[in-house]
Write a structure and sequence with these properties.
It comes from Thermomonospora umbrina. This is TetR family transcriptional regulator. Residues 6-66 form the HTH tetR-type domain. GO terms for molecular function: DNA binding. 72% of the residues lie in helices and 0% in strands. By secondary structure, it is mainly alpha-helical. It has one domain (7-178): Tetracycline Repressor, domain 2. Helix 1 (7-23) crosses helix 4 (51-74) and helix 7 crosses helix 8 (142-162). The protein is elongated and about 55 Å long. The N and C termini lie far apart (60 Å).
Length: 183
């Protein structure tokens, strides 16, 4: 049985983020992770039952850390327009600067081992923005929240592929969500 915590587990997860950044998820083998962590395969299997368990854990770590950073930016704001705008912008900025974003957003969409994890995370994020969308007039806000998660993810991917901010896409996304016509 895999152990849930400890410095060895953390070192393996951090090494996994590095491998994901360098090689993507398809290049993330147990051997590559333990080599990057300077550990043995035995250490890996003390903390994770298999590669799938590891991938799910690394996906959770990445998204939990992203959520913590976003809450630090918008957690003090009341639900509504400003929190929605700042949250989306902060999320997109974090995706551009955070290690392994490309692997954990692009490749996770097609990795069967991560499909359920990714869907669960997207559902969670959608629930976090429902009050903001209701405050800007969406009724019902839930379907728009689900669509928003997908749209923000797609803008993030465009920015990652272009290796830069795409203010045109960010502005269009915000205008759509805030129901503002172009001038």
């Amino acid at each position: 049985m895999a152990r849930p915590a400890g410095p060895g587990r953390e070192a393996l997860l951090r090494a996994g983020l590095h491998v994901a950044q360098e090689r993507g998820l398809t290049g993330m083998s147990v051997n590559a992770v333990v080599e990057a962590a300077g550990m043995s395969k035995g250490n890996f299997y003390q903390h994770f039952t298999d590669r799938r368990d590891f991938l799910r854990s690394i996906h959770r770590l990445y998204h939990d850390e992203m959520e913590e950073r976003l809450i630090a930016v918008v957690g003090h704001l009341p639900p509504g327009r400003e929190r929605l705008i700042q949250g989306i912008i902060a999320h997109l900025d974090l995706c551009l600067e955070t290690r392994a974003t490309r692997a954990l957003l692009v490749q996770a969409r097609t990795d069967a081992d991560l499909f359920d994890e990714m869907r669960s995370r997207n559902d969670h994020i959608a629930t976090l923005v429902v009050d903001d969308l209701a405050a800007v007039g969406w009724d019902p806000p839930e379907p728009v929240a689900r669509m928003m998660v997908t749209m923000v993810g797609d803008v993030s991917l465009e920015e990652l592929f272009d290796d830069r901010r795409r203010d045109d896409l960010r502005d269009a996304l915000l205008r759509l969500l805030l129901r503002e016509a172009t001038h």
